[in-house]
Design a protein that fits this description.
Length: 147
């Protein structure tokens, strides 16, 4: 198994996403890797309405996204991660996560399973399923909600 040096995890401020952050933080601590916590946001309400957002929290603007990142970074520190970066990206969660992975040449992307078994997820795709198909790095889907 190769050494993970850069691990990306997304958060939307939900309990489910914080569980994924904690798992990613534990892996980052074990590998002494950099943990990059990302949060997507919509710049306008119209952008948010263009996407069916049943499976995650809609974040409008930078301030709520920064609050989500601060909370996630604190949770990661409590687990033992020491190298933590945070990134805010506009767009859908999938677009933002893929950009963060690419921009940072990440080795591992960690996401929660929220939405993967929902009707919406099965019909339109879910963040975990979509990033698993699109990612050029390893993807870990953490069981964060029963489904």
């Amino acid at each position: 198994m190769s050494q993970y040096t850069k691990i990306v995890v997304g958060t939307d401020g939900s309990k489910s996403s914080l569980l994924a952050v904690q798992r990613a933080a534990a892996i980052a601590a074990a590998f002494d890797a950099t943990l990059i916590i990302g949060c997507a946001y919509y710049e306008t309400k119209e952008d948010a309405n263009k996407t069916l957002r049943q499976d995650s929290v809609t974040v409008l603007g930078n301030d709520p996204a920064q609050e989500n990142l601060n909370k996630a970074a604190e949770a990661a520190k409590e687990i033992g991660a020491t190298k933590i970066d945070t990134v805010i990206k506009p767009g859908t969660p999938v677009e933002a996560l893929m950009a963060i992975v690419t921009d940072n040449d990440a080795d591992l992307l960690v996401v929660g399973n929220r939405g993967i078994n929902s009707l919406t997820g099965r019909l339109l795709g879910s963040v975990p399923a979509d990033v698993a198909r699109q990612s050029n790095c390893d993807v870990m889907i953490v069981h964060t909600v029963a489904g």
